[in-house]
Amino acid sequence: MSWQELLLELTLMPLLAFVIGLAMVLMMRRIAAQIQRRVGPPLLQPIYDIVKLYSKQTQISHGFIHELGIMMAVGGYIAAEALLPVPGMDGLADKGGLITLIYFLMVPTLGMALGVGQCANPNGSIGISRALTAMLAYDIPFVIVVFGVAFHYQTTNLAEIAAIQQAHGVSGWGMMEMPLLALAALFALQGMMGKQPFEVYIAPAEIATGPMVEMSGKFMGGLFVMQSFQYYTAGVLYTILFLGGGENWLTFLPKIFAVVAIPMTIAMLFPRFRTEDLVRLMWKWPVMAGLLGLAFVMN
Amino acid sequence: MDMGTLMFAGALGLMLIGTAALVLSGHLMRMVFGLALLESGASLLLVLTGYRSGASAPIILDGVVPASMVDPVPQALVLTAIVIALGVQALALGLVLRVHRAYGTFEMREIRRRMERDICDQAGLELPSSNEVPEPYPGSPKPQQGEY
Amino acid sequence: MTPLDHLLLLSALTAVFTLAAGNIRSAGWIATLLYAAQGLALVKMWGMGYGPEVADSSISFQLLGQTMHWRFDSLSWFFALITVGAGFFSSWFASGGWADHYRAQGNSLRLFHSALALNVFSMLVLLASGDLLSLFIGWELVSWASFLIMGLASTRAMGYAMRYLTYAIAGAMAILMGIVMVHAQTGSFEFAALAAAVPGMSNGTLWLLLLLFGGGFGVKMALVPVHLWQAKAYAETPGPGAAFLGAISSRMGLFALILVIIQLVGIGRLVGMSIPYTFLDARDLLAWVAVFTMIFPTYIALRQHDARRLLAWHGVGQTGYMLLGVVIMDDLGSAGGLMHVFNYATYQAMLFMSVSAIMYRTGTADLNQLGGLVTRMPLTFIAMLVGIIGLAGLPPMNGFVSKWLIYRSLVAEGMPLLFVGAVIGTLGTILSVYKLIHNSFLGQLRLEHAKVEEAPWSMTLPMLSLAAIVFLTGYFPGVVLDWISALQASVGLPVLAHHLGGVHFAQGGLDMIWINSLLIAGIAIGALIFYSTGRSQRVHQLDNYAGGHFLSADVRYQYSDNFYPGLLHLIGPWYRKSFRWAESALVSLTDALSLAMQGLYRQVQPSIYLLITVVIALSWVNIR
Amino acid sequence: MKDIKKIEIIQRPPPPEPARRTNPLARVFDELVRFCQSRSMFMLHYCTGCGAIELPPAMTSRFDMERLGIQPMVTPRQADILLVTGYVSVKTLKRIILTYEQMPSPKYVIGICSCTVNGGMYWQSYATAKVLKDYIPVDVYIAGCMPRPEAVISGLRALMEDIRTGRGDAWKKYYQNYDFYLGNQQRLFGEKWQTPTDVIAEAHHYGMMTDQTLGEHTDLLEQNEVPLDALRTRLKARTE
Amino acid sequence: MNNLILLVVLPLITAFLLPVIDRFSTLAARWSGPLVLLITTFIGASAWLQLGTGAVSLELGGFRPPLGIVLYVDQLALLFAIAVSFGTLLLWPYGNRGGLRQQTLTLLLAGSGSGLALSGDLFNIYVFYELVAVVSYGLAVSLRTPAAFAAAIRYLIISGFGAALSLAGIALIYDATGTLNLAQLAQLAPEKLNDLQGLSAFVLLLIGIGVKAELFPVNTWVPEIYATAPKRVSALLAGLVSKLAVVVILRLLVLIFPQPEAHTLLLVLGILGVLTGELAAWRARDLPRVLAYSSIGQLGIVFIAFSVPGEAGVFAGLAMALHHLLIKPALFLLAERWDGSLAGLTGAAKASPLGAALFVLFSLSLLGIPPLPGFWAKLLVLTSLAQMGAALYYTGAVVIMLGMVLEANYLFRIIARMYQKAPSTGTPPGHGRLDLAISSMLGAGLIAAVFLLAPLADRLQGIAAQTVDVNQYIEAVNPVPTRNPI
Fold it and tell me: Of C549, C607, C114, C82, which is closest to residue C348 (Cα–Cα)?
């Protein structure tokens, strides 16, 4: 692959991710509205929001780390998209595989945590404390899944994982071969996307959206951008691990949207878990399912 | 039972009596006497090792060696032993006297207790008690709640 | 004079110099230069870092029919590099403002500097050991040198140093027992003799040796059943000393473990030694010990509110990664474990330094009494930031590379539970390092810290240099991996195929140059987006939304104590203090026994024992 | 539901023609931004009084504000519009002002219920502020006791229209006439009145200083000002 | 060589003459003791140089062995005889401490101690042993406090009991063999004493002599005496007297009782000694008793070492014994002014930096920290134990190590106290100049030993080899072939 092609891919992948991610945000809000029997936002609402936020006159900053946090949050995801192979574009998937990606995804979290910390707002700190606890909760089932998949396909290269699944058709999908792991991953996904019932770290009425409490203007805009990347990443990652990746965009897009739609649908049906209940739940059922699935994979 | 065995038994008996006095009694004087008995018994035992039944005294008169004589060596030895024992007993009595003068008792238990207290007083310590727990290392702070 | 002699001589010279002239103002600087000279002497032995060279020392002793000798190989060289480097940076840090501060508190600078120099010297002697006897001598020297530097600061520190000492002596005794057993088996203290005798040994003997050596070395590494001593002892050590100890001291245990158990006994033998009635073998045992060492101390660290203790507990936890990596014993894992030694040394030293810089300026390391210092001490903040990213093992720092290698090899070897355990450890690390940086540098700046200034250059420069090393070796891990592959070859482990940016691995490799460039580019784009729109306006920290409440500076609203209440509400009851209980039970037992023995010697009737003994002994000989 | 979309928008006089910019693209851009601002309004509903009870119906499935791009937010930092719903007691007013000042510009205030207009049924009360716009600039009043959700939606749409056309700039008045507002606040709260937000510095920052910004009341503020904390950002911004 | 008898005789005679000399000149009386000891040390040293690695026996009064009294001089005996002379010289009551009585007793101790070391005859050993015992009672009460008297009478009772038993043991031996000459006994032992009677005799002798050697469990006097006697006396008792008893036990073990049962008995008692001593020391609250209990533990290690048959065990045990001989007196001298509670030692290092440093040095060597001599001694013990391979011997090794852990804890607890900041209530006292000088000398010796380790080890190994060489002993004494006296 020539460097021009690579550069093109590296430019295209985050851009596509952003666009798809915006659509996913919209879809999420529409699903929520439908479940609540509302109309929901107009088609371009995510763009309106982001443009408005970036065009605010007042951009309140609590210091450089506050700003750096947002840059890391957005930049980390932008970088992470280059590691996620999509149909026709592998990007840098071979330079660092699944494990690297998992760690990459912690960079935005850390960045945001730093930024929130600098704000010196106790609500924000409480939110971060809860968010990190939640990360501890859902990452344990998730790494079990990661291990199982990587071990099953004997590689951590995401592009190869997708390719192996595609070689065997639908029956070769991870979901078919490792149903328990797929289930555990779905649980973890719900937590990773911070959707109900696992969104105690935002808890708007209690701690005023927690980490976002001091985020205004383009800071908030950055977080909106990050959110769309986040949905995209979650959808694509799950698709690659369990749904055969993307043979082409026609099959790929429905898959990733479907993946994201599931947590949204579940989210609107449940109230909120407390932090310790969240941890307890995550460490019980998904971990059990994951370990059981792992046992099937390993033998 | 010939004479030798009898005396052997007697020596052992002396030792036993002495030991009993030493161990069973808590009275200092009795202990010292027990010690004396014990030493006598031991000396008797030593002398008896040279005893031959029916032999004569090991005295060579005019170059005539008796056909059977008792071994002279233990007799020589036991003399020394008796002298030493005597010295030790004298010393022991002296010490007992001193102790009695200081503590006014012959009871070993009481003496032991008073001695321990004296030692502790001199070192500036309380009497030992099982209630007191030593620190495993000096200045070791008591762990607080929640601290690991 | 061989190059090794030069190194040891220089090191001894440093010790002598600091002993003689440790009190003069520039002693720290001169000592730093001397450490640099030791570094140069190491560089002269560069060949060992890249190939199978061995340097002998011309010193050797003949005693009791045994020869003691000293020599350096790739393994020693790698550890020596870290040792001398840690000494250099710690001494640098301790040279300028810190030294004045320390002296002003009524402490003896001479004692500190000479303790540091003695530590470096004794570690080099240990690293150079050429047989079991010289290994033990070096081991004891290191233990006592550590004791010295731990205990010199305060009564409290001495208390923890005493605890360390008790553990260390117990460990040393285990090692001595092992050495004596080897001697009984082979009649020699030579490494070669042990290696030759291993195939002929029964599994039982080998298990005993493994437990003795492993236990003894494990004490120094603070592996799990014997981990209690380390954190507090390190935490109470004066700042740069803690940096030094944290960076390298307990790694001596790993060195010895690699030397004796990996190099001499060998992996093949370890895997063959199965634990009865289980499906585990000796290697699994070591690996599980390593994993528990990661998990327990890390979660203990989570509950600390003293920054030094928090870091020190992490030090205990990170040892687990090194051991785990090494005992996986494939090319990836062992390289990961060994690289973690280097990486960990760099950022742990830096973290301890930044904490002592905070202490230098604010006088406290209590995380509940700090906050918001980033505006006051930005350089120190950078150091700590780089450090915690490294410690948490996130890209782009070097800690990521070593952890990646360990995880990757666990996947390749198919060890899921170990993998999950390691991840649990890492997650706990992330949680507590965030607490560390949040409670000290972020959040509300306290009124009394309003006038705090940045630490002096003599302190920030070493930190920043270390930060640069952390970043650069994260960018180009091949630099370190070169040394490690030479080491692997010399120890007899499979050699890792690598390049400047990472590793080749057929089933998903790693290229840090790409990864880091990608991350930097991503963040650069993020910054571009961020700065392309309106100028942001800085507000002060009281202009903060608190539910409509008016905040004021005299009120403390920093969220610091019990930072993870939800988690601890759940897992709090799991902290059973079992090890602590076991330790105190042991002390109580000793105490009770001691009391009984004293009672024995306080017997009223002096002759009763004599009688009893005579009776028993006579009956015994007569019954026989 | 379709009926709701047909609610008549109250006709208002056309906005004054904004000054022509030389760059036509910039104008398009401004238009776009204003459009987006009008279609994405995050509101902070400060539930001061009874009017708040009408907001849930306005938000949920019956009237569904979200189709207009209006979402509730819980912190002033994220919010664009401040809904003051009902009577404003003195104590509450302090919080309202604090919250208002913490909102990033451009920001809009909607006074709901008659109480915010003239005190309403509480006009005799010793403890309420009668006229909200004396203390902060108000963009839209929605009168009624209480106004029905339709009225609320209608008021919001009026505000949207104002924003889209560039007339919704009441927030600028706060900077431009700060002395006036501060004076009223001081009259109510006393001379020691002070908020953490440095409005004057912000006025500097956005170039909205007029001769009305500073005056005797700001002088009084400066005299009585307690340094809030050691971070010197406030003074620094003012001297720039 | 023949003047070696002076080692015994000269101090004894001088001791008895001392009151007479004192009549004429107090000064002469005060200095005649050291002078005599200096002479005997010199005689011993010159004999050492002359002796080389050989062994000779000196017959007294012209009687040939086995009937005559024999002094057997080999390296071991001479070494300890010199140690006695030199040790008493060092620990002499200088400055007229305790008056004439002390000087007399010390001289008596020197004479009888040398005799004990050099005797080649079981009964002479008994006699000298009793003499040493009597002298030590006298020394123990030199402070003349009630507690000292009480401790001494307790000591006397237990020691007298032991002596009587050993006398009975001697009787048993004589009964079996008809001789008390060690060389002849060594010849006869394999056939005549290799039975129950012989073993019983050994038990009686071991327990009897073990009282002085601080053998468990007949050492209950140790903490009492060391706590009540002056530290100089404790130093003599712990350093010299106990070692002399150890040497006697070693001789008996090597020459007469090589049975495995004897070794096992010694091993078990040694193990128990280490355990009880170290454990009791862990809780001790004043320095003299800490040192007393620690001394019990250390001697336990010596016994454990001697329980290993053959040259290795003797070598290791001798190394341990000599090391302890060097260290304990020095530690007791340091404890002279530090004899209060341990808590009172806080800040002692400030008052006496050299003393504290020496204390650290000795403690380190006592613990066996390389490269100090104590380590090599302990290494020898441990390797010899491991060579045996039997479970009981391994137990011994493990117990020694446990003891070291405990010892490290309690010794460094004290040291940590010393180096703490002094309390405001007053600093603990510094040291007397003389005590400090002697301790420093011993400390210097210890450090010199580190550098002379290899030659010292070789020499000691030679001594051990000579000691276990029974034939050399027999040949050197060359007793008249045994003859039934009846």
Answer: C82
Question: Does D195 lie at the interface with C, CB-CB under 8 angstroms?
Answer: yes
Residue of D nearest to A213 (CA): D75
User: CB of A169 within 8 A of CB of A245?
Assistant: no
Structure tokens at E240: 């010299």
Check whether C397 has a pLDDT greater than 50: yes
Contact between A73 and A67 under an 8 Å Cβ cutoff? The reply is no
Q: Do residues A93 and A83 touch, judged by C-beta distance below 8 A?
A: yes
- How many structural domains is chain B composed of? 1
Grouping H, G, I as helix, E, B as strand and the rest as coil, residue B92 is: helix
Domains in chain C: boundaries: 250-529, 579-623
Specify the CATH number of the domain D19-170.
3.40.50.12280
**Which of chain C's residues have a Cβ under 8 Å away from the Cβ of E412?**
162, 165
Q: Is C548 on the interface with D (CB under 8 A)?
A: yes
CA atoms lying within 13 Å on the CB side of residue D28: 3
Domain encompassing residue E92: 1-119
pLDDT of residue C420 exceeding 50, the answer is: yes
What are B46's two structure tokens?
Answer: 């030593």
CB contact under 8 A, D195 and C550: yes
**Mean pLDDT in consecutive groups of 10 residues from the start of chain B, 148 residues:** 76 88 86 89 84 71 72 81 88 89 86 85 71 51 44
More confident residue, D2 or C284: C284
Question: Which residue, E119, E143, E163, sits at the end of a domain?
Answer: E119
DSSP state of E237: I
Q: Torsion over CA of E419, E420, E426 and E428, rounded to 10 degrees?
A: -30
Give the model's pLDDT for residue B144.
Answer: 44
For residues E90 and E208, membership in a common domain is answered with no
Percent of chain C with pLDDT over 70: 100
Residue B9 included in any domain? yes
Structure token digits, residue A168? 């065997």
Mean of the pLDDT values across residues D179-205?
Answer: 82
pLDDT tens digit string along C292-348? 998 998 988 888 888 888 988 988 888 888 888 888 878 888 888 888 999 999 988
Low-confidence residues of chain A: pLDDT under 70: 1
Stated as kind and residue range, the H or E segment containing A89 is none
Tell me the per-residue pLDDT of E229-246, one tens digit each, with 9 for 90 and over.
Answer: 888 888 888 888 899 999
Domain end residue (candidates: E119, E141, E164):
E119
E137 interaction partners in chain B (CB closer than 8 Å): 91, 95
- Domain ranges, ordered by start, for chain D: 19-170, 177-239
Q: Is C114 exposed, middle or buried (0-12, 13-18, 19+ CB in 10 A)?
A: buried
Residue labelled with tokens 């911070």: A194
If DSSP codes are grouped into helix, strand and coil, which group holds residue C68?
strand
Instruction: State whether C537 and D231 contact (CB < 8 Å).
Output: no
- State the amino acid at position E135 in one-letter form: V
pLDDT bin (cut points 50, 70, 90) of residue E486 is very low
Q: In this complex, which chains have at least 3 CB pairs below 8 Å with chain E?
A: B, C
Contacts of E153 in chain B (CB under 8 A): 28, 92, 95-96, 99, 111
Q: Of the candidates E151, E344, E409, which has its C-beta nearest B124's C-beta?
A: E344
What pLDDT shows up at residue C573? 84
Say which residues have a Cβ less than 8 Å from residue C427's Cβ, sequence separation at least 6. Answer: A135, A136, A139, A140
| Partner residue facing C548 (CB), from D98, D197, D205 | D98
Contact of A213 with chain D, judged by CB distance below 8 Å, is answered with yes
Q: Are A287 and A141 in contact (CB under 8 A)?
A: yes
Report the number of distinct structural domains present in chain E.
Answer: 2
Q: Which domain holds residue B39?
A: 3-54+70-123
DSSP C377-404: -HHHHHHHHHHHHHHHT-TTSHHHHHHH
List Cβ neighbours of A208 (8 Å cut-off, separation of 6 or more).
A123, C545, C547, D74, D75
